[in-house]
Amino acid sequence: MTRYYFFFLLFLPVITFGQTTVSGEVADSVTGQAMEFVSVKLFTEKDSVLKTGAYTDEKGKFIMDNIPGGNYYIVVGFSGYEDKQISSVKLTGQPVYSIGRVALAPVNLKQIDELVVVGKMEVLSAGIDKKVYNVDQDIVARGAGADEVLNNIPSITLDEEGRVSLRGEGSVTILINGQPSSLTGSGGDLLSSIPASTIERIEVVTNPSAKYDPDGTSGIINIVLKKNKVRGINGQIAATGGIPGHDHKLNAALSFRNDKLNVYGSYAFDYMEGYRNNFGDIERVIGTDSLMNLNQTRYGTDFKRGHMARLGLDWYLSNNSTFGISGNGQISARRRTGDQLNEQFIASESVTNEWVRRSEEPENRKGIDLNAYFNHNFKNELSKFSSSINYSTSDRTEDGYFSQDYRVFGGAITTMNTIYQNQYSASNDGIFTAQADYEQIVPKIKARYEVGIKAILRDEKLNSSSASYDYALQDFVTDTFATYDYKYNENVYSAYGTFGQELGKLKYQAGLRGEYVLQDPRLLSENKTYTKEYAQLYPSAHVRYATGERSEISFGYSRRINRPNSRDLNPFTNYSDPFNLRTGNPDLKPEFIHSFDLGYTQTFKSMSLTGSVYYRHTTDVIQRVKIFYDDNTAAVTMANIDVSQTVGGELIFQFRPLPWWRNTISFNGNYIDYQNASTASDNWNNSGFNWGVKYNGSIDFWKKTATFQVNATYNAPRVTAQGIIYLWNFVDIAVQKQFFGKKFSVGVKLADVFNTKGFKMRIDQPTLRQYSDFDFQTRRVYLTLTYNFGKMEFSQKQLPKDTEGGGGDF
């Protein structure tokens, strides 16, 4: 079948002739990460006259063309890093002269002979179209999961189900090491089981080029897991304990690297017990004057336990070629229980029905990601080929045990029999991804082009059954309305091409991606098919202009898509709360987005400012809505709204008034307008201004062996198509002290200092009003102990060229 074919492309490098072209690339000496917008200047060796200069691109590469023969030296510089000089650059008319890879060290790195003692990096590196969050530098993240780490990043928020929003939009593509993964799931319960200690960095791209998948209204979030970058045998052991209740984590990592091999592995265990409460009030107008009120109060527990392991190997076949394999495995269990008191009023506002519903919902998950890659830098260092294959699969089982006792029915005390109901579901998800990319630099015209192909194949299966106890039969009887067999297949085949060029201070890039998509949801138990098939083109364009030595303005455009996922399409109805059902919508259409972004960045000696203004126009907007039925029940589902328009701005200000005091303040605000021509009975037209601000500040003391840090987040009420939601607002503080040459550290954190981290929702419609309040155990004190062993410094000796895969760099 077509969906299992492998695709190959044959690329011929472009051969150019002319005067000498000087090329190279620049990276951070600590992380090995490519550095963008680094100043590279070429001086004549005789009289130190500036001959020409260039800035590195998003991959850290630069080219300086048409250089006459002679003796020169090069100075590479960037704010916050030590300048580096490359002497004795002798040009003799050769077509290409490469200075190779230049590693810049942060200003607080101290060189000792062959070793470099690692100092501190910035928690956040903010560029015009990309933010890089260095998790290791955030001591508040110690002992947290990936979901909590995301909450610390500017413009990212999560709701009560762990759904991630970026710049106020809920459609975000989440990748692990640059690839789709079943481990990210469709909510935060899986993200929470990825320990922060296993994450190296998180990359956020708000307006990606055509090289990347167009999925996601607001952009891409790439979670990059740790991989060893230092020689010898190295390791880390960390343990975290949190009280009150229990929130404990244990992490261990071990790695070995030499000139030919890099072997790494890690293991993480987490255990959590807490509470999970929610309170709701529904008021609905029925007919012309009849009124129904439903008050619900639920107190419950939440238990989670998980194991995660990673093992990988990089094999440096040569100085230019690398082959690698890696695997991530995860096993987790969760159990939620709760007692919910329901009080229903009708018209007269007297109690007519009162009942208690008890629930126990255990679930188990296991999953694995497997990856293989091959990368090759050609000898002329002007072209690169990369390829990868990734397979991700996960299994999940969920049970539900419910009982319901009526105390008052029809306004009178009753002795009705207890209602018993059981639910069971089993699901399997599989994602296969294969891709190949080729990039070529054309020095003569200071240009670069990239081409590639990709295939993403998804298979998901879900079987569910429900049964209620029949007192006459003295047995459980299958509920046919809640028993089903569901299957979902999605195939995405794509190819892209981009072309970019540097014209003095101006850089531009244009690209086009083509996709063919087949979505095939099937409700097998009812012999229903909801197949969708379409082909689309996704153009992108980016322009950058250097207004000064350390300032730049940019404009970006991309067409994007948000495809409804399996969970959103699944027509199964969850009856754990009969008055608040949850179901998918198999008739959902994908939403299409035109995204525009105008940005500016300015870097000074001790501060930087990054700002952007953006506009998004979306059709067939996918929104979570609540629908009410005539029998007083309601269902949360997904629906398409005709159009939404968003105009917003983002500002990130980083400043260090003193060498030991770092601060980052970010703001994001936007005005959104939802427009829907017709609905069944309610008004889904809404508009309003949404905004939020975040602060991250740290102070180093005790001879820079101790750090105090504060993270604070405030999100103003956010407008939805039906009402308003109130997102997380919280303050976290932490302190860490290092001992024994920074090999051992002790950290203490107080999470959610003012106990304000919760989620609220309000729906205001002509015939109904609902208020919901979700409350979790979030305020805890954490103690973290960390021990590092081995040679934890970077060697100045040249390692094989960085052609590693699986990092998912953007």
From TrEMBL:
**Gene Ontology terms for molecular function:** siderophore uptake transmembrane transporter activity
Q: Name one GO biological process term.
A: siderophore transmembrane transport
Q: Where is the signal peptide?
A: 1-18
UniProt xrefs under Pfam families: CarboxypepD_reg, OMP_b-brl_3, Plug
Gene3D superfamilies, per database record? Carboxypeptidase-like, regulatory domain, TonB-dependent receptor, beta-barrel domain, TonB-dependent receptor, plug domain
Residue stretches making up the TonB-dependent receptor plug domain: 145-220
Name-wise, this protein is TonB-dependent receptor
Q: Which InterPro entries match?
A: Beta-barrel_TonB_sf, CarboxyPept-like_regulatory, OMP_b-brl_3, Plug_dom, Plug_dom_sf, TonB-dep_rcpt-like
Q: Specify the Outer membrane protein beta-barrel domain's residue ranges.
A: 376-787
Q: Name the GO cellular-component terms.
A: cell outer membrane
Q: Where in the cell is it found?
A: Cell outer membrane
Q: Which UniProt keywords apply?
A: Cell outer membrane, Membrane, Receptor, Signal, Transmembrane, Transmembrane beta strand, Transport
Record SUPFAM superfamilies: Carboxypeptidase regulatory domain-like, Porins
The membrane topology of this protein is: Multi-pass membrane protein
Look up keyword RNA-binding and say if it applies.
no
